[in-house]
Each structure stands twice: as C-alpha cells, then as structure tokens.
Design brief:
The chain is mainly α. The chain has a single domain, classed as Orthogonal Bundle (Globin-like). Helix content is about 70%, strand content about 0%. The longest helix is centred in the C-terminal third of the chain and has 25 residues. This is superoxide dismutase.
Length: about 180
C-alpha cells in the first residue's frame, strides 16, 4: 500500500498539466467508433474499471462509504452500489463521447462532474488521473483489436482533456484537500 501511495503522491505532481490540444476530426471518429463497441458491454466494462481501480489503488475506495470496507473482489463486483456507480461513470463517458463535436456540452458535463466530486464528495483530483490510466488499461486489455495504438493515443488525449478540465473546475471552486476520514 505504501508503494501505491507513493504513486498517488507522484501523480499529484503531474496534475499541473498544460491544456491538451483539441481532438482532431480523425481522433474524434476513432474515439467514437471504439466507444460504440465498448459501450455495448458498458456495465461489465464499468465494473471491471472500478474493480481494477480499487485493487490497484485501494485508497480510492475511501470515497465510497457504501463499499469501502469490502475487501473480497467477488463481493465488490456484486455490490449494487458499485454497479450503480460504474453505470454512472460509463454514462458520463458516453455523454462526452457522443458530444465530442459540441464543446459546450462537453464543458457542461465536465463542470458538473468536477463540482460534484470537489464539493459534494471531496475526491482528490489525482484520482481522475489515476482513473484515466485505469480506463486506458482496461480498454486495451478488453478490446485489443479495437484499441490500436492510434486509438489509444486518441483516448489518451481525450482523458487528458478530461483531467485538465476537471482540475480547472476544482481550482475554480477553490477545492482544498480535507481529512480523508470521511463517511
């Protein structure tokens, strides 16, 4: 666990990113086409993403009072609360992907997500960076024929934009880390 915490601390330093360049039309198509295949299995993929997040970065569970004490992976996979949150994550990504040509809609969604996680849930923004890496890893593992290096690069750019935008919302609302002993 100490190793994972060092990884989290290291990632925090990387949150001061430059604004990523916008997706090109070609990258937008690559993301949307690959997502169409992923979203067909959205519940299973969402659960896989969250399980991998919690197994590899157990400190992420601290923000989920409904299942933060569940250690058994099978029990966690069956948790209705985890499945519900996985569905929300996948639906939010779906909304972003469907609206990649509508920058106002994308900004609106990211602002809602950022404000909720900063103000209501007090989630350290480093977890968006961590989650982005987990999403890329799961997409590559679960869809190796779909997520080619070119597709992976487009997703990396999209997720960097997500992290940058959410971090900007955190800065805008004046988020400061609080005690991790919530819930």
């Amino acid at each position: 666990m100490e190793r994972k915490q060092r990884e989290v601390d290291h990632l925090e330093l990387e949150l001061e990113l430059e604004r990523p360049s916008p997706l090109t039309d070609e990258e937008r198509v690559l993301v949307q086409d690959s997502w169409a295949q992923v979203f067909q299995n959205c519940e299973d993929v969402g659960v896989t993403i969250l399980i991998k997040l919690f197994v590899n970065f157990p400190t992420a569970k601290q923000y989920f009072r409904q299942f933060k004490h569940i250690e058994d992976v099978r029990e966690l996979e069956q948790s209705p609360q985890l499945r519900k949150h996985a569905q929300r994550v996948m639906n939010a990504i779906n909304t972003l992907v469907e609206n990649l040509d509508n920058s106002e809609k994308v900004a609106s969604v990211l602002k809602l997500v950022g404000k909720a996680h900063a103000l209501k849930h007090n989630v350290d923004p480093v977890y968006f960076k961590i989650l982005s890496g987990v999403i890329l890893e799961v997409l590559g593992e679960e869809y190796p024929d779909v997520v080619t290096p070119e597709v992976g690069s487009a997703w990396t750019k999209l997720l960097a934009t997500l992290c940058y935008s959410v971090k900007a919302v955190y800065d805008e609302v004046g988020w400061k880390p609080q005690s991790a002993s919530t819930g």
